[in-house]
Write a structure and sequence with these properties.
about 500 residues, alpha/beta, Rossmann fold, Alpha-Beta Plaits, 4 domains, 5-stranded parallel β-sheet, 5-stranded antiparallel β-sheet, 22 helices, about 60% helix
């Protein structure tokens, strides 16, 4: 789905564009468009484009604050791949001339008919498709190759095609997988050091990097190099697995061996903690984070479920639980799902699957349906004042915060902001702030080495005892117990 931002100071135009966008004929067939947000002034457009980074922007020229052309001129170099479609009530040659060097894709004269709007979307989609084909989609191809293509044997022809496409210098190679527990921390320093020594094709996603070393490098030699490069991650909880050296047609064996080693290093009394953290991260970020990253995170959760003891029956039970939670999150908690039809029945549909092959055929389209719906609801339907309030909380959570100060930052009344939290997120301002503070405290526990008392001050609680009480109420355990588990996992 391509994400679209609409910028116009007239509510009827915003409503009309939103309606036509939601009813574009190709949306249900995939490759369609979803609403990323709406802005009414030039300054709001600048802010919202920076936050959401949409693929396509419908930009009115005459908007308050700064003109649409001024907004585009400020963003053109920062987001060179973003497509802008201008709209104005009058056809003016001078404006069209100014738009050309800014790379504006189309120039529409209002009122814009449904037919014109749809044909514009069709041309934009064709442009995106052509651009992706011309560029070869190298990063996406690498991701598919490392995470899907080499999960099974390749024919000689398939391997030669892959080798040519990625410019791999050798007919042999091995697979390595790096994994880090800390959310938001990068494995890039390790990969950068390895790239100085080897020819590497890599893909980095949510807390994991998968890479192929092309050449006849021995497994033990590479393991030593990874350990040395890992000095840059000192103090963090990370691990790696490396497979043996194989011809390209049998790289799946190297990948399986790397996964097996990785799982053995992750095993232990707290092994399930990583899996639970991944599920929590997926539920928290689905619909907001990049869709590709969410797919990778889902693949890791799926992998955890299949690696656990108990066989396919247990895997189905665990994944039924995950899909049930996601359905409830997306169709329930975010928008009053009692009145919303959900196309999935996880318990019935998963129980009917007979083997892993049937699961694979069902799970990918099912998750993509939920992902698309989450993106539409979370990104498209949150009013700008609520987005401003959330940003204010995330910036000032360590300070004494009241509903009134957040409402002032969002430029609405406290009563209206309270209603937005209740209607849009199904929670209160206080509960949202509490959950965010606890998330930040857990991050500090894992990363900082600070005492629980220091952490309580750092996340906005002046009384450590009260912080512990709130933490236990929300998590069902104490911050000290969480710290002990995190410490065991580190070592």
């Amino acid at each position: 789905m391509y994400r679209v931002l609409i910028v116009d100071d007239e509510e009827p135009v915003l409503d009309s564009y939103e309606y036509m966008l939601a009813n574009h004929p190709d949306n249900d067939a995939g490759g369609g468009f979803s609403l990323a947000g709406k802005a009414r002034t030039g300054y709001e457009a600048l802010s919202l484009i920076g936050e959401t980074e949409p693929d396509l922007v419908f930009m009115d020229i005459n908007i308050p604050g700064m003109s649409g052309l001024e907004v585009i001129s400020q963003l053109h170099e920062k987001f060179p791949r973003m497509v802008f479609v201008l709209s104005t009530a009058y056809e003016r040659f001078d404006l069209a001339q100014r738009a050309i060097p800014l790379g504006v894709f189309e120039y529409l004269v209002k009122p814009v008919s449904k037919r014109t709007f749809f044909s514009t979307l069709d041309r934009v989609r064709e442009y995106f498709g052509k651009r992706e084909r011309e560029e070869g989609s190298a990063p996406a191809d690498a991701s598919v190759f490392l995470n899907e293509t080499i999960t099974e044997p390749l024919s000689e022809t398939e391997w030669e095609n892959c080798r040519e496409r990625f410019g791999l210098p050798s007919d042999k190679g091995l697979i390595g997988i790096l994994e880090i527990d800390e959310e938001g921390r990068s494995l890039s320093p390790v990969l950068e050091k390895l790239l100085l020594r080897y020819s590497i094709l890599s893909d980095t996603g949510e807390n994991r990097s998968v890479f192929l070393v092309s050449g006849e490098t021995g497994r033990e030699t590479l393991a030593d190099q990874v350990e040395a490069a890992g000095d840059s991650l000192a103090g963090l909880s990370w691990r790696f697995g490396i497979g043996g050296l194989y011809r390209g047609t049998e790289l799946y064996r190297s990948r399986e061996e790397a996964l097996e080693e990785l799982r053995s290093k992750a095993a232990g009394p707290d092994a399930s903690l990583t899996a639970r953290l991944r599920i929590a991260r997926l539920r928290r970020r689905i619909g907001i984070a990049d869709e590709g990253e969410m797919k990778k995170l889902f693949a890791l959760i799926e992998e955890d479920a299949f690696a656990a003891a108990g066989g396919f029956i247990r895997t189905k039970a665990e994944m039924t639980g995950l899909f049930t939670l996601l359905v409830d999150d997306i169709y329930g908690a975010w928008s009053g799902g009692a009145e919303t039809f959900c196309p999935l029945n996880p318990a019935a549909e998963i129980s009917a699957l007979e083997d892993p092959a049937a699961w694979k055929a069902w799970s990918k389209p099912a998750f993509e349906k939920l992902l698309a719906e989450a993106s539409r609801r979370r990104s498209g339907n949150f009013p700008l004042p609520l987005l401003k309030a959330i940003a204010f909380i995330q910036e000032h959570y360590a300070e004494p915060l009241q509903l009134g100060s957040a409402a002032e930052a969002a430029q609405v009344t406290p009563a209206y902001l309270s209603r937005l939290f209740s209607d849009q997120i199904k929670t209160s301002f206080v509960d949202y702030l509490t959950e965010y503070r606890i998330e930040q405290s857990e991050k500090l526990i894992r990363e900082s080495g600070m005492s629980i008392k220091e952490i309580s001050f750092a996340v906005g609680y002046q009384d450590p005892n009260y912080f512990s009480k709130i933490y236990r109420k929300v998590r069902g355990t104490s911050p000290s117990e969480f710290s002990e588990r995190a410490s065991r996992q580190l070592h």
